[in-house]
Amino acid sequence: MGRDEEEDDNGGGGGRERTKLDDVAVHETVPSLLLDGTGLVCVTGGTGFVASWLIMRLLQRGYSVRATVRTNPEGNKKDISYLTELPFASERLQIFTADLNEPESFKPAIEGCKAVFHVAHPMDQSGNETEEAVTKRTVQGLMGILKSCADAKTVIRFFYTSSAVTVFYSGGNAGGGSGEVDESVWSDVEVFRNQKEKRVSGSYVVSKLAAEMAALEFGAKNGLEVVTLVIPLVVGPFISPSLPSSVFISLAMLFEGNYKEKYLFDTYNMVHIDDVARAMIYLLEKPIAKGRYICSSVEMKIDEVYEFLSTKYPQFQLPFIDMKNYKVEKRMSLSTKKLRSAGFEFKYGADEIFSGAIRSCEARGFL
Ligand SMILES: NC(=O)c1ccc[n+]([C@@H]2O[C@H](COP(=O)([O-])OP(=O)(O)OC[C@H]3O[C@@H](n4cnc5c(N)ncnc54)[C@H](OP(=O)(O)O)[C@@H]3O)[C@@H](O)[C@H]2O)c1
C-alpha cells in the first residue's frame, strides 16, 4: 500500500478526519518511557483488522514492532505487504511466525520486548469447532505467551484485547440498577446461553471470558502488569485486505445479497478502530495502568442506525426491516468512566465510524 492510500485510509472519511502523527501523541507532558530508542513491542495476530491498525499506529509513534503471523494452513506464503509496506516498516517492523496451537512459538518474538499486545484469537466464523476446542487453543496459546513474557524479564506490560461479551451477559442487578456495566462486572455464561437470540457464538463468549480471566490471574500471581481492553464492535477504516467481520456486522444492512436478519443487532455498541489503537498506546505510555478498561464510544439502537445510514448514504438501497422484531431486550450500557478518568479522550463518533468503514469497503470492492 502506498503512502497516499494509507493517509486516505487513516481517518477513513477524507481530509477532515485524517489523523496526523501528532494526534497519536496522547501524553503531551509525560514522554513515553518506552520511546527511548529501545521501544520494542510485540503484537500477536499481526495480519488481523485490529492488530494491523495498531501496528501502523505504533510505527508512526516511533516504536519498533515485532508482529507475529501464522502460516497458511496450506503452507502458502501470505501476502503481508500491507504490513511490510507501512511507513517506517522497513526500519522498525519485524515479522515472526507463531501460532496459538504452538504456545511456545511466540517466545522468540517476545524476548527483549517492553510490552506485548496479544490480539490474535481463533475467530471461528464457521462455528464448526467445539467450544472446548476453541477455548483450549485460546487459553493454552495465551498461557504460552504469558510465560514467554515472564521469562523474558523485559516485558513491563501485557495487553489483552478482550471483548464486551465478557460484561454484557451479567444478568441480575449488575451495575446496581444504574443501567450501566463497568469493569467490576463479569458475564455469566448461563445468562448468555439463556438468551433467546444469540448474535455471537458460545465459543467466542466462553473463550474470551476464560482468556481475560486467566490473563488477569496470571498477572496478579506473577507480578506482570496486565491490562485488558474490553471492547465492543470495532468499526472504521481498515488496512487489512479481507473484510473484517465487525465491519461487516455493523454495515450488514448495506450488504445487498448478503443481508440476513441474523446479522442485525438490536443495539450497536461500537468504537472506532483508531480509538482502540489510541487507547492501547495511551495505556502503554501511562506510568500506571492496571486491570480492565472498557473502551466504547457509540451506542445506537437498530432504528437509529437505519435512520442514520439511510439519511447519510441514500445511494444504498436499505432493505425493509421490521423494527418490532428488534425489541431491545434489557441490555446494559458500557461505562467508560475508568478509561476517561485515566485521562483518555475518545476522538471519533458515529460519523467517522461509519464513513471510515464505508470508504474502506468501497475502496476494496466490498460495497
Ligand atoms: N473486531 C471487533 O469488533 C472486536 C471486538 C472485541 C474484541 N475483539 C478482539 O480483538 C482481537 C482482534 O480481532 P479482529 O477483529 O482484528 O479479528 P481478525 O481480523 O479476525 O484477526 C484475528 C487474528 O488472529 C489470528 N489468529 C487466528 N487464529 C490464530 C492462531 N491459531 N494462531 C495465531 N494467530 C491466529 C488471525 O490470523 P490469520 O490472519 O492467519 O487468520 C488474525 O491475525 C481478537 O482478540 C478479538 O476477540 C475484536
From TrEMBL:
Residues 41-289 form the NAD-dependent epimerase/dehydratase domain. SUPFAM superfamilies: NAD(P)-binding Rossmann-fold domains (SSF51735). GO terms for molecular function: oxidoreductase activity, acting on the CH-OH group of donors, NAD or NADP as acceptor. Keywords: NADP, Oxidoreductase. Residues 1-22 are annotated as: Disordered. Gene3D superfamilies: NAD(P)-binding Rossmann-like Domain. InterPro entries: Epimerase_deHydtase, NAD(P)-bd_dom_sf, NAD(P)_dehydrat-like. Pfam families: Epimerase. It comes from the Eukaryota. Residues 1-10 have a biased composition (Acidic residues). This is NAD-dependent epimerase/dehydratase domain-containing protein. It comes from Capsella rubella.
